[in-house]
Amino acid sequence: MELRPFRTADFQTLFDIDRACFPPGVSYSWEELARFITHRASKTWVAQEGDAIIGFLVANREPGQVGHIVTIDVVEQWRRRGVGRALMDAAEDWAERQSLKLVYLETAEDNLAAQAFYEARGYAKVEKLERYYANGTAAWLMVKWTK
Q: What is the pLDDT of residues 61-81, one digit of tens each?
């Protein structure tokens, strides 16, 4: 597996992966995902195995030296094989190189596997966001202070 920067030709595949990873109302619309990826303060890493894209992560830099993990998506058959860990490592290393003070993300209240993954990486739940997603699902805001 290799991590590489996003290429414009990747977009349809990333959109399809996001739709497969998250239910309607949690997954992003075409326009939302495009806006996040192309924002001037964003960075997108793509995980690839051979010719296949197997995951991706979008992060952005926000005012106040804050990083936001917008989404991390791993193709189901590649989960629990180090893809998510590699993507998070890349984003957190980037945050440190950018001298960001903290990184935050949101994860669905019912996504216990994701919550455990983030907690093992040092993220803490700081606030429950009621009806955060378009489908009405609540989310946890989770934060990790950088070194």
A: 999 999 999 999 999 999 999
DSSP labels for 84-119? HHHHHHHHHHHHHHTT-SEEEEEEETT-HHHHHHHH
User: How many helices (H) does the chain have, and how many strands (E)?
Assistant: 4, 7
pTM over 0.85: yes
Give the separation between CA 45 and CA 118, rounded to whole angstroms. Answer: 18
Do residues 93 and 121 lie in contact, with contact meaning Cβ atoms separated by under 8 Å?
Answer: no
| DSSP strand pairing (66-74 vs 102-108) | parallel
Q: How many CB atoms lie within 10 A of CB 107?
A: 22
Domains, the chain, ranges and CATH? 2-106 (3.40.630.30)
C-alpha dihedral sign at 77, 24, 59, 119:
negative
Burial class (CB in 10 A: 0-12, 13-18, 19+), 34: middle
Q: 90 vs 22, 61, 97, 137, CA distance in Å?
A: 22, 14, 11, 28
Q: Is 34 within 8 Å of 25 (Cβ atoms)?
A: no
